[in-house]
Amino acid sequence: MTQTADFDTALRSLLNDVLGLGAARAEALTADSGLFGALPELDSMAVASLLTEIEDRFDVVIDDDEVDGDMLDTFGGLLAFIRAKRGEA
Amino acid sequence: MADEHAVVFDRGRQVRLLVVPPLFEEMNRTRRFLVETQRVLDGLGIDSMLPDLPGCNESLQAFSAQSLRSWRDAMAAAASHFAATHVLAVRGGVLVFPTSLPGWVLEPVKGAAILRQLLRARVLAAKEAGAAESSADLLEEGRNHGLELAGYRLSAALVAGLDAAIPQDEGQRVIRQSDLGGSPLWLRSEPGEDAAQSAALARLVAAEASV
């Protein structure tokens, strides 16, 4: 498996852990699936948990001012953000 | 010590486990999980006590008067009151548990990480409301004057304490989520319980407990 596919799997599993989506909903996420604003589970507290877990599991640091609509808008957008952070964009 | 509520399974047995809960919202999220773990431990012949941290859960004390020191003092007093032989500290509980007892720490977390997440939630909520706040400014304000975070009024001492605190474990065995299987229950706003995780944790503790 490539690292890129690993990120995809790891992010699904992370979203499942933080939001309790269930394996089926987590697997069904596509690049265009809406996150912030689309998932009722994702309030500001959940976003804070999500960012902390992303930092932890992907070994990156996210600044407050990097957190915006674009980054959290879709599953694909968040994945791209993490890849860019890891220098894989 | 001031009277605090505790969930107690006490039949005067040899192994007496003090359970030190996580801090803030993670305490509520893991409560059913921990009480279910206590129930399984009871069946395995182990006594256990899960006391409230002062200012939390059923406690009548003011949250705003608490600090890591007051929680450490309370947990030390609880260990002595219940004659605990072992300790299980969970997540942020690892910042305040009585370190002289043998036992286990479950997924320890640094105080600064807890604080960062609380600050971040506040900054995000402010942003949604159209206001700009910065974690760095809030932290500075909190260290000097205390701070309202996620519905908790943190004293200046608690903010400063958290910012500096690292897990206190000294020889206690570290248990990881992967040892329990499943998803970490403290991450979710509505975690419910996971009987399999409680059973796994209880079995692990029971297998390693000795007096």
From TrEMBL, chain A:
Span of domain Carrier: 5-86
Matches recorded under Pfam families: PP-binding (PF00550)
InterPro entries listed in its UniProt record: ACP-like_sf, PP-bd_ACP
Protein name: Acyl carrier protein
Organism: Novosphingobium fuchskuhlense
